[in-house]
Amino acid sequence: MDANLFTQSETNGLQMRDVSLFDDGSGGSCTLHVQTSPFQAQVVFFFDDPSLSAFVEQLKGLENTLEGQARLGNTYEDPYIRFVGNGMGHVIVDGVLQVSGDHMQRLEFEFRTDQTALGPFIQGLLEVAESNKL
Description:
Elements: E1 3-5, E2 12-21, E3 28-36, E4 39-47, H1 52-65, E5 67-73, E6 80-86, E7 90-99, E8 105-114, H2 118-131
Antiparallel strand pairs: 1-2, 2-3, 3-4, 5-6, 6-7, 7-8
Helix pairs in contact: 1-2
């Protein structure tokens, strides 16, 4: 299952593809695709802080109040995605993607959208959570 953040821009977006949650409830993983002009990245993204359901609740709060933040990432490592509301309908999406191997690769990104993008993204995450209960 996928969750897509559709923005008003063809050059900025975020997709969580093939999201799966771990059986023990400790977190999950997905293929995270980020496009923020002129850069793009597609990485395997592991998350455990907070849980997916807590992240969805943070996003719902942001959608309802237009203020605050929602963050999904790792407890002990840097990769994360974050949504920050400014109280006036604008939402900054930022994060750090990191891949370790023979050489460290790191991308810090940021783009702006508005609160209308949150509802469909939240719905996609709820569908992901429901499909993982099966």
